[in-house]
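Fold Annotation — chain and its backbone
Next Lines — sequence and tokenised fold

***
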Amino acid sequence: CKLADGKPLPTAWANSISPWVTPFILAADRAAAKGKTFYYFDGWTFYISQDGGQTWQRGATTGLPQWFVQPAIVPNPLRSGDIWMTFARNGDGVQRNKLYRSMDGGKTFQAIKTVDSAEAITFGKGASPQTPSLYLFGRIGGAKQDAIYKSDDLAQTWQRISNPTEQQFPGLLMMEGDMRTANLVYVSLGGRGIMVGERK
């Protein structure tokens, strides 16, 4: 892999520590017309490839948190160039980060104002074929504990769907929404198996 200027694509900071730290720094744009658009984040700069990863161009270089070992790139599966990113806390770190979104294919990112902090996000089947549901694990509206929230309008409004006082999610590693069945989401927990949430 190389950049447009011929230089090699930089190694991700997180993976330079350990190749097992994070698998979420590379993502495909499943809504791209030709199926050859990929995104990559090395810890400082966002990169875009439109030829299946053969060459890369620099995207956003500012506006995103740095020095985090668990960044995650989560493209909207129904809208090409609509990219979301979370930056989970480092180990026992206390610093929390907002949810970030790019609507120009990774050239710029902005923080989502309705979200206090985001540890993980995923998309699922929404009410319309054009707009998926968005699930978030984090804090919204001044909450003091992490919980799972759902948005049907791409982060404009949120509904909490888990109760952190009754059901904690320590060590949440990953969420995956079902794009075929509405209101169905899977949660992977560190050492505690997989939980399934479904609203009837």
User: Anything to note?
Assistant: The longest strand covers residues 117-124. The radius of gyration is 17 Å. The first helix runs from residue 13 to 17.
